[in-house]
Structures are given as structure tokens and as C-alpha cells.
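# nightly structure sweep
# worker-07 picked up a monomer target from the shared queue
# config: single-sequence mode, recycle default, output format = C-alpha cells
# input follows
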Amino acid sequence: MSAVNDPDADLMLRVKRGDMRAFETLVEKYKQPVAHLIFRSLPDAAEAEDLAQAVFIQVYKSAGRYQAAARFSTWLFTIARNLCLNEIRRRSRHPTEALESGSSEDDAPPRQWEDDKAPTPGDRALEGELEQRIQEALHDLPESQRTALLLCRNEDMAYEDIAQVLGCSLSATKSLIHRARETLKSRLKPYLQTGVWKASRGSKA
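# output follows
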């Protein structure tokens, strides 16, 4: 889909003209995807929520300069990634502060960020273990691989759009996604062999 045929880009152009209802529509549609992306890089529910709000504040502040040169989602996730990278850099410069505000092993995104389908009681323990392993495996990926994979799997973005978000070539994007998939397959091999990966609501990584 080109930007010309992107209804979300049309909504953002209405925001540019001062249409708050259009902005609310975009926030409602993208708040969960943005929060999920941030949470996978910064597994702190409160921090992820604050940063997601900052993303939409930035979107609103940038409305006057918005040009529908690409899909709205590409522009949005570029903003989200940049803010997330800034926070990661800030934490690396202030590790003590990051530890104090970091999440515990049991921290999880708020309910509204989770998939609608809850596991059955009998699967809950296994699901919880699998989700923890997925989160650990994703967190250990290089940032560019993790972001590329999440945008591909969770947001079903085209490689060309992901390349724009990452600021790299199409071939490099394909390589990042391939390496990320291979790493996850290796880390999660026991679950893949038993078929739990396919059954899990966390299987989209």
C-alpha cells in the first residue's frame, strides 16, 4: 500500500489540520502495537507506558511538519524506535538509575497490551514459562534484529517499510530478520519440537 492509499496517512493529514478526533482514532489503533514494541526492548511496564505516551505526544507535536511520503505506520514506528533507542542509551549512561526503575522477573505488560485470547488454566504454567523464554530470547537479540522481527511478525509490515524504520537497505533488513528467526529457533528449540510454540499466544514473538 502506498502512502497515497493509506487511510492512516489521511487521518494524520487531518490531524495536521487540527482534527483531534482523527488523532484519537490513530492513538486508539496504534497504542497497543507501539506499547508492545517498546515493552519488548524495555521490559518495564510503567516505563513502556510512559514512553508510548511520549511517542504520541511527539506525533502530535510533529503534525505540522508531517508529509505523507510513506505509510503512517512507518513514520510512527520510526519515532517509537528513536525514542526507545534514546532511552536505552540513557540507561547505559546511568546504569544505577536503570536498575532502580527496572522491572522484576515477574513484571508483565498491563492486561490491555496482551492478546485477547487467554490460556486455559491447564496451560497457564507452561504458557508462562514459554512467554518468559520468548521474552528472554528477544531481549538478548541485537536491537536492530529484535525491532525488525517484531515489526515483521507483530505488525505484518513489508520489508521495505521495515527498512525505512531501521534506516538500512532492503537486503540488510532481510538478513536481520533471518538471523533473528534462526537465533530464536535455536533458543526455543525444545518448544518448537513439542509444538508448544505454535500453540502459544506468545508465538508471534
